[in-house]
Design goal:
Length: 131
């Protein structure tokens, strides 16, 4: 196979993967509708949120696979019992992490209130806070 054909094949594979990834992000919704629900939480950092606001490490925010931005959730560590109230302002976790049990991403400030950042992942219980 000549080098040009290899590059074209590689580019095609990258494009196919990107299309597959984008499709999976839209097809795999958050399956729970009843609260409280349990799952794995992580923390994340970004430049911008999916709502268009700048991401702030010190804000008490979260990312969920829902479109109910602005909704408040109470997130409690199953292990320590510590809780934090967060505002949903971003989309996440990624579909392949979600399929492994990760149901919420917290800002570093929110994660720090219920767990140690060095842990990276903790089991949590999520409850929607009524308006």
């Amino acid at each position: 196979m000549n080098p040009t054909r290899s590059v074209v094949c590689l580019l095609l594979l990258v494009c196919l993967y990107a299309a597959f990834d984008a499709l999976m992000e839209r097809l795999i919704p958050l399956p729970f509708t009843a609260y409280p629900t349990k799952g794995i939480a992580s923390f994340y950092t970004e430049q911008m949120t999916s709502t268009g606001a700048a991401f702030k490490n010190d804000a008490l925010t979260c990312a969920l696979r829902r479109k109910d931005y602005g909704t408040r959730y109470n997130v409690c560590s199953v292990q320590s019992g510590k809780c934090v109230a967060v505002v949903h302002n971003d989309w996440g976790p990624r579909w392949y992490l979600f399929l492994r049990g990760r149901i919420i991403d917290l800002s570093p400030a929110a994660f720090r209130q219920i767990g140690d950042l060095d842990q990276g992942l903790i089991e949590v219980r999520i409850e929607k806070i009524p308006k």
